[in-house]
Amino acid sequence: MQDIIVIGGGPAGGSAALFAAKAGKATLVLDNDHGLTKRAWLANHYGVSDISGPDMLAIGREQAEKFGAVFKQDKAVLIESGSSSVTVKTESGDSYEAQHVIVATGLAVDAAQQSGLKLKPGTEPRVKTIIDTDDKGRTSADRVWAAGTAAGVSMHTIITAGDGARVAIHVISELNGERYVDHDIFTG
Ligand SMILES: Cc1cc2nc3c(=O)[nH]c(=O)nc-3n(C[C@H](O)[C@H](O)[C@H](O)COP(=O)(O)OP(=O)(O)OC[C@H]3O[C@@H](n4cnc5c(N)ncnc54)[C@H](O)[C@@H]3O)c2cc1C
């Protein structure tokens, strides 16, 4: 069983996976390679000079993989929430179990809808429907969280990536039973 399954490997999901894996959590990312970021040129991500979307995604994935996150290309179609775990079923017929699931599917909320998660109208331009969450990113289903565009935040990589990290920190804190902070120290 995974500690955390992240559905979606864009800036929100990739960043959530990076934090989760770096915290030592067994982390699986399911992504079907239909994200927005592939088409973006980014000149407004603080601390990063101009970069293409595909390069940002590749670097983010490498960072998460370095800490042990596993990426699989597949589409999640059903999220079944139980009292002690969550099962994610995919288009290719596979089934995965985790203690918690973070949904970071960008504009696509079909899997969330199919799974009965509560949705609501989006407020950002071109975002019709989002997943309803509380202030920590919890959805209407036990152990299922949402982050990034799918959860209605402003569609900019620094914000969606930050939101993925924010929600992952809440999930890690819940797993650890205490508030989690990830700080490395520069000694040079
Ligand atoms: C043309 C364009 C230009 C842009 N320019 C900028 C810019 O200059 N600056 C800026 O800050 N932002 C820009 N953006 C916005 C930026 O790309 C988004 O903020 C960001 O990509 C959203 O991140 P996300 O992780 O929420 O969603 P996404 O990047 O869309 O990632 C969602 C991921 O989930 C996957 N997925 C969806 N459903 C499933 C499923 N059921 N199972 C498995 N995987 C699934 C998708 O394949 C995708 O990889 C631009 C976007 C576009 C389209």
Automatic annotation (TrEMBL):
Q: Would the keyword Flavoprotein turn up in this protein's UniProt record?
A: yes
| Cofactor(s) annotated in UniProt | FAD
In terms of InterPro entries, this protein maps to: FAD/NAD-bd_sf, FAD/NAD-binding_dom, Ferredoxin-NADP_redctase_2
Q: Which UniProt keywords apply?
A: Flavoprotein, Oxidoreductase
Domain FAD/NAD(P)-binding stretches: 3-109
The keyword Zinc belongs to this UniProt entry's keyword annotation? no
Q: Which domain of life is it from?
A: Bacteria
Subunit text: Homodimer.
Q: Which PANTHER family match?
A: THIOREDOXIN REDUCTASE 1-RELATED-RELATED
Q: What protein am I looking at? A: FAD-dependent oxidoreductase
Annotated organism of origin:
Paenibacillus apiarius
